[in-house]
Amino acid sequence: MRTQVVIVGGGPSGLLLGQLLHKAGVETVVLERQSREYVLGRIRAGVLERGLVDLMGQAGVDARMKAEGFVHDGTLIAYDNDMFRVDFAAHTDATVLVYGQTEVTRDLYDARDSTGGDTHFEVEEVSIQDADTDAPFVTYSQHGQTHRIDCDFVAGCDGFHGVSRKTIPEDVRREYEKVYPFGWLGILSETPPVNDELIYANSDRGFALCSMRNANLSRYYIQCETSDDPANWTDEAFWDELRRRIPPQAAEALVTGPSIEKSIAPLRSFVCEPMRWGRLFLCGDAAHIVPPTGAKGLNTAASDVHYLNQGLRQYYGEGDSAGIDQYSIRALARVWKTQRFSWWFSTLMHHFPGQTEFDKKMQLAELALLRDNNEAQAAMALNYVGLPY
Ligand code: RFL
Ligand code: PHB
Questions:
Q1: Atom 5 of ligand 2: nearest residue by CA position
Q2: What is the pTM assigned to this prediction?
Q3: Which end of the chain is more exposed for a tag (fewer CB within 10 A), N or C?
Q4: Of the residues 123, 185, 270, 298, which should be mutated to test ligand 1's pocket, given the most ligand atoms within 8 Å of the CB?
Q5: Are both 228 and 340 inside the same structural domain?
Q6: β-bridge pairing 217-224 and 280-282
């Protein structure tokens, strides 16, 4: 079998790239390790930058997102029993959209189905071969049979644990990593959100975040130990702890109910350089991970997709390889800036084990600067709504 671009991974990066390339008349095959139901059952990101919203429009898959997503033009930051607001719209000409990654992925699968896109689920033993030559190919097995796809390019969109990054030889690849000494315990509950905008809370007991998916579906997180287990937390214990970490006016307004999902995510910053090796391109979590504090994971995956889509369109449309040659440099320039923002916001908002009184004062001074200073708020707003591509 032969195609133009093999996309390894059917998460949001792979599917969005597939739809954008389809619009340009470029043929793709998507290989996904899990079943579709499994991919659509994962609860992950909830905040979309303008860049991702625009890409969904270019891919022709924004109808439901526009109808059901919620525009947020600011966020609340809480500390010391009080809250202040950062107004995105006042500091930038942009806003963000609250629309879950699960819904983004569902819309992309529906679009891929309706355009006859070739997608293979539950594939095993994916192996990317000869990516450093002009004739790469991908082998995999499915239901006990081995298959081979010859192609022009391979897009490695298979997340942090995929095979694509590891295909780049170790002497070419450089990896940068920071592991945070805590995780986030998250729950989803069919209750109205405590507030119509997100609340990010710094407290002595640890960070908390009040987020949402829609008018009757809330997403809340509390900082926890990395070694913790969701089974250690009853719903009551979660709600009690959340109430202690958010300002009193929010705690009083909180509507609680049974959780419908409860999980722990570790916090990590990670970047792999370069993001291209020959005819293999890494996109999204395959190349980089951010701690979720700035909601940048999915959004940074989308900016990679944008640069790769541009490069491949230029190659197929004009026979010009400048865009794909510059892919890694262009993508990484933006990746490092979103890494910086996610690291800064994570460092500002969490309680670190062994944190000294001085460290705490530094957090408080920086929070006060953000509360009182227009330029500090403008810098935060610019990064939160998403740096331009
Ligand atoms: P994904 O979503 O991980 O998709 C990769 C896909 O590749 C498949 N795969 C393979 N397929 C074929 N062969 C192989 N060998 C394969 N190995 C893996 C996987 O099954 C999967 O379907 O990466 P992608 O598309 O780059 O998208 C990135 C985003 O998913 C990610 O950045 C965000 O979800 C990160 N993230 C969050 N970001 C936010 O902005 N806000 C959040 O609240 C948030 N919560 C999270 C998160 C990531 C989490 N992970 C990775 C565990 C919560 C969690 C738990
Ligand atoms: C979420 O709703 O899951 C969410 C929102 C904002 C973040 C992280 C996660 O910064």
A1: 46
A2: 0.97
A3: N
A4: 298
A5: no
A6: unpaired
